[in-house]
Amino acid sequence: MDGAQTNELTQWPLVDRESIEKITQWLTAQPHLPQIQEHEIAQFLHANYGNEEATQRTIENYYTLRTNYRDCFTDRDVFNDAMQTALRIMMFTILPGETKEGYKMVYTRLLTSDASHFNHPQILKFMTMCLDLWVKLEGNAKGHIMLMDMHGMHVGHMTKMNMAAVKKHMFYVQDALPIRLKQLHFINVVPFMNWLMSLVRPLLHKEVEEMINMHVGLGKLHEDIPIECLPNEVGGTAGSVQELHDSFKEKLYANSEWFKATESQNLVDETKRPPKPKKFMFGLFG
């Protein structure tokens, strides 16, 4: 292993060296999967708390989804018209600091309530890119929290929901993304939240549904999340939504070549996949 790889492996100090070697050996018996580097294996092991069987499933799901869901994982140019439109409609940012448990946080919010240009699959593609960058920058955190501010959302956005894209996006977040998801917070909950939940609840794992916290007011949110980590608009002191948006946008731009490079790297070769049970991937691609 060269010096750069050794350096990257130090990001995962709690990952057991023997587990890395076992997953490496398992990968050699999976001809359809890419032979990824040790620091990448360490990332999956960290996300799964060292559980080797769960790590294998996550690796399988991660690379299969990125290979087969090409609408979301190609043409990831942050400067193209579709992504620039998404950046004007939706903001995503990594919040500064961490919780007392050492968890890292991200925050999302609409930048405009106008739904006329709201392209749901493109917004989910943008969100996936942001999540991928979060994993790249903070995947080694003790835990991860997502805060979704529903300010500005109305029924007009819901009429444009694409449930096929939602299904794939949620599978990616719950079963493939190598993070330690701990909490989901919905802020400024809208009156039609029950209707929205009725649509997505069938797609939620029970343990993920139990992570959800709904906030109509801000009192409980301020108990759960440090005020110094939150945007000004929700009673925090971390800066305005626009300032946080601009800051993360610079991170996206700085990683534009990384997004392009990963489109064609580490893909699954379906012609070499060993036979799987008919229910493999829960019918996601069937």
UniProtKB/TrEMBL annotation:
Its Gene Ontology molecular function terms?
Answer: phosphatidylinositol bisphosphate binding
What Gene Ontology cellular component terms go with this record?
Answer: membrane
Q: One Pfam family for this entry, by name?
A: CRAL_TRIO
Coiled coil location:
none
Gene3D superfamilies, sorted: CRAL-TRIO lipid binding domain
Please list the residue ranges annotated as the CRAL-TRIO domain: 83-242
Q: Which PANTHER family match?
A: ALPHA-TOCOPHEROL TRANSFER PROTEIN-RELATED, CRAL-TRIO DOMAIN-CONTAINING PROTEIN
Q: What is this protein called?
A: CRAL-TRIO domain-containing protein
Organism of derivation: Anopheles coluzzii
